[in-house]
């Protein structure tokens, strides 16, 4: 289904479980793990992990062990996935003139997804930037890395947040932005900025799965299942390459 975009009823093959069973199993793997929720370094409870999330983190740990995760710089960008006008996290995007849901993705220097956040299509990329960075799945430290993003992320507050996290923002400023004495916040390397295509390539990898070119799932829960499954496939491909 992820690759071809077929319907659940198309899986009703004699001698095999029907599509409803497959649908139920996919949603089962998105369920939260039972038990006490994990806590951060300050003792505050974190969001419970799902089975697919644990698998994603395990694959990232294997990639890190094989030294295939490159964190010299990380790339951040959002992409719109067109959708029917469902109630959950779907809204009209004036930029794209279409209904849809937005997926904000953070990748390493090779295009491996490190974090993802799903939001309504009308939301600005900057609005979901911080939640995306806060949900990084890998245990490898990003301290000292460059953060590559486009002009849509040009904000003094966001640049200060990135510096506080130990990253160096490499974001081009808008023509109306006044730098003043904040040269550290607005430092930009043109050659490094050309590597922003990496996150665009990852977005293309995601949309190579027909089920993610257009959102057919009424609930966000089912849509995020396919999104997590696509990320797992990308990580497995990187691990086998």
Q: Short summary of the structure?
A:
The protein is of the alpha/beta class. It contains 7 helices and 7 strands, in the order H-H-E-E-E-E-H-E-H-E-H-H-E-H. The protein has one domain.
Q: Spell out the helices and strands N to C.
A: HHEEEEHEHEHHEH
Our count of helices gives 7
End-to-end span in angstroms? 24 Å
Total number of distinct structural domains: 1
Mean pLDDT: 88
- Per DSSP E runs of 2 or more residues, the count of β-strands stands at 7
Which regions are unreliable across 5 or more consecutive residues at pLDDT < 50?
none
Helix content: 25-40%
Description:
- The structure is a single chain.
- The protein contains seven helices and seven strands.
- The protein has one domain.
- The model has no long low-confidence stretch (mean pLDDT 88).
- It has 241 residues and is α/β, with parallel strands linked by helices.
- It has helices at 19-29, 51-65, 129-134, 156-164, 190-193, 197-207, 220-240; strands spanning 73-83, 91-93, 98-107, 113-120, 146-148, 168-170, 214-215.
- Strand 3 (98-107) and strand 4 form a beta hairpin.
- 32% of the residues lie in helices and 17% in strands.
- Strands 1, 2, 3, 4, 5, 6 and 7 form a seven-stranded mixed sheet that branches.
């Amino acid at each position: 289904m992820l690759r071809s975009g077929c319907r659940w009823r198309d899986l009703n093959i004699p001698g095999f479980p029907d599509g409803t069973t497959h649908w139920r199993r996919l949603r089962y793997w998105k369920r939260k793990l039972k038990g006490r929720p994990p806590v951060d370094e300050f003792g505050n409870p974190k969001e419970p992990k799902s089975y697919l999330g644990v698998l994603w983190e395990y694959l990232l740990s294997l990639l890190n062990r094989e030294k295939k995760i490159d964190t010299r710089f990380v790339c951040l960008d959002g992409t719109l996935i067109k959708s029917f006008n469902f109630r959950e996290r779907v809204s009209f995007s004036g930029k794209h003139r279409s209904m849809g849901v937005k997926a904000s993705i953070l990748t390493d220097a090779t295009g491996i997804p490190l974090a993802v956040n799903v939001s309504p299509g009308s939301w600005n990329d900057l609005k979901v930037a911080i939640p995306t960075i806060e949900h990084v799945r890998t245990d490898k430290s990003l301290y000292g890395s460059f953060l590559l993003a486009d002009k849509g992320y040009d904000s003094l507050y966001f640049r200060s947040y990135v510096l506080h996290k130990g990253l160096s923002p490499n974001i081009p400023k808008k023509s109306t932005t006044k730098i003043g004495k904040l040269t550290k916040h607005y430092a930009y390397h043109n050659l490094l900025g050309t590597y922003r295509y990496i996150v665009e390539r990852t977005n293309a990898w995601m949309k190579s799965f027909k089920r993610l070119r257009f959102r057919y799932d009424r609930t966000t829960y089912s849509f995020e299942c396919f999104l997590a499954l696509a990320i797992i496939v990308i990580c497995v491909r990187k691990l086998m390459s």
